[in-house]
Structure prediction request, 595 residues.
Amino acid sequence: MLLEVDSIFMNFGGIAALKGISFSVPEGQVVSVIGPNGAGKTTLFNIVTGFQKPTAGQVRFDGAVVTGLLPHAIAKHGLIRTFQKTEVFPALTVMECVRIGLLNNFQPSLFSVLIGKAEVAAFVKNSALDVAYILEMVGLQSKSEYLAQELSYGEQRLLEIAVGLAARPRLLLLDEPSSGLNAEESARFSTLVRRLQKQKITIVLVEHNMNVVMGVSDQIIVVHHGEKIAEGTPEAVSQNRDVIRAYLGREWVTDAVG
Amino acid sequence: MAFLRSPDPRTGLYLRWPLLAGVLIALPFIGLTGYELHLLIISAIFVILSSSLSLIMGYGGLLSLAHAAFFGIGAYTSALLFMNFRLSMWVGLPAAGIVSAIAAICVGSLFLKVRGHRFVITSLAFVEIMRLIAVNAVDLTRGQMGLPGIAAPILTIPGIGTIDFASKTAFYFLAVGGAAICVWTVARIVHSPIGWGLLALRENENLGESVGVSAFRHAMIAFVVGAFFAGIAGSLYAHYTGFVSPDLFFFSYTVTMLVMVVIGGKATILGPIVGAIAFTFLPEYLRVVAQYRLVLVGVVLLATVLAFPNGLVELWSRWLRPALLHLRTLRSRDNAA
Prediction:
């Protein structure tokens, strides 16, 4: 298992946002975490990537415990996330934004920068090619000189993924990547996810768009009120009584499942 | 050193460095008055301060009001080494930089954990604490009386003779040399992967962290390198003016440095240089209008901020450069016709 989330509890004051969630993500799969608003999905993401500390529980990545590490230290393991509210570096060009993602692989010391070590120069030189390759992959190659803040919302979402890809993720956690995208952009996004999967990047997706979820997921985990209520293949989950009840209410269960 | 030859991406500006070096070397010999030479030396010292502050504030986005503290720490380090141990500036200058840098590591490991307003206020508090120490630790600093009589260094080169840096011309080269090293170092850092990390810190700290850019590490590098050069500037100031007092920690010094960075153009290499020179000469030359001087400085300041929100370097990028390009296209069209 690449990612193991082991009975995570999270309390905010007296409110229990997560009540002992456990799941694991095998290498190379696309796993979606779904659930109604307020189910605790984003909190779960924040805990896995070190932005919040859980009240109890453990996160292991490739066997190593990462709970308690700072976000940048977790990123170094190859565990990279995007944010629910789109995050970019607004006043930088697209090229400069993606270049920052490359820093996950190499950060020279002040000394080696000042004396001008060859490896620093080589990294800077190669970065242009790496950035061009990644922008090509997400389809932003024609925008590389634009400022991030000049891009449309959908393009900013793609840019955020590009920044994450530059960090060479082994596992990419995408928090509602297709929210706010139009139908065409969503379809483009689904294609991108499948391309990433072919490149052996494991993906965990928090998503409300069921077309995307059903289209790309190998496995779905359903979270409701801070608990895991179901997991399985898209077909199995869509037939699950508890899931239908959580989403649509009790009276729909008999009608839908029959 | 490709970054010195390539144009600045924001302004399209690049310097013809050999030409600039030639001008700087020739300046003291074209018949400037002692007063003008004095202003050039002060400018050079402020170029060190504003360039190093721009690394922290312009690139790293950390509005540090503590820069005057490191300037003062450097000045006092140099002065105390001279007064108590008769150590010349050749020891005092590096010592001032190192002591300031160590002070920055100590306070930075506390301050740099907080951001935004809290960082601004803590950094301001630090300057005030340093001022109170300078005023009240009378046994060490002589309090408000200050430390007078700090001599400029003398350099003896075997076979050539001695250079006494008490002469303004000699000290000019020392100060400009210091400024050049500072600007070079800042340029080198901001055009390196460390500079990319600083921009990440300024633009979006969380996103940077999520792709492995430690905000604390980058903030610390900028803060310590900045403090090192502020200390160097302090030492140069102490040995040039020969006098150090708690006034060095006044808020007005901090404001002067901030104004130079913002007016010149933060997050550019050239901006803080332009700002430092402009705001050293301008208040002096406005002395002719006597009591209206500071009013006029204020008016110029406001007008500049309104006309060029991104600093005086915009004068080039928004006005002169487009005009030049336009002229060039017109001329080539004429030639074709």
